[in-house]
Amino acid sequence: MDPTMLSTAAKPLVDWHGLGQVLLLSLGFGVGSVLILSTGIALFADASNRSGARKAVTQLGAALCIAAVAAAVIFGIVVMLSKKK
């Protein structure tokens, strides 16, 4: 019998560690980005009820939330497009 067939048969079909990492990262980015984006939208809506410096701070916080979600999306695209050699 060919020894390479034995070593191939001994390997598990599913890389559970890698699958767990993908699950945790996708859950973190998925839920986290939704929470951050909804916080940014709520801050923009709340900014209309404020005036002066509070309005500026609220708008800045909302802009930072939306920028963080945009950065996460760009990071995801870069990771998907990068090739391992």
Report the mean per-residue pLDDT as an integer.
Answer: 87
Note the quaternary state here.
Answer: single chain
The percent of residues in helical segments reads over 70%
Structural class computed from helices and strand pairing: mainly alpha
Count of domain modules: 1
End-to-end distance, in Å?
Answer: 33 Å
Shape: elongated
Percentage of residues in DSSP E strands = under 5%
Question: Mind describing the biggest β-sheet?
Answer: none
Q: In angstroms, what is the radius of gyration?
A: 22 Å
Low-confidence stretches: none
Number of strands: 0
Order of helices and strands: HHH
What is the number of helices? 3
In short:
This protein is mainly α and 85 residues long.
Report on the structure:
The structure is a single chain. The longest helix is centred in the middle third of the chain and has 32 residues, at 16-47. The model has no long low-confidence stretch (mean pLDDT 87). The protein is elongated. It has helices at residues 3-10, 16-47, 53-81. It has one domain (18-81). It is mostly helical and 85 residues long. The protein contains 3 helices and no strands.
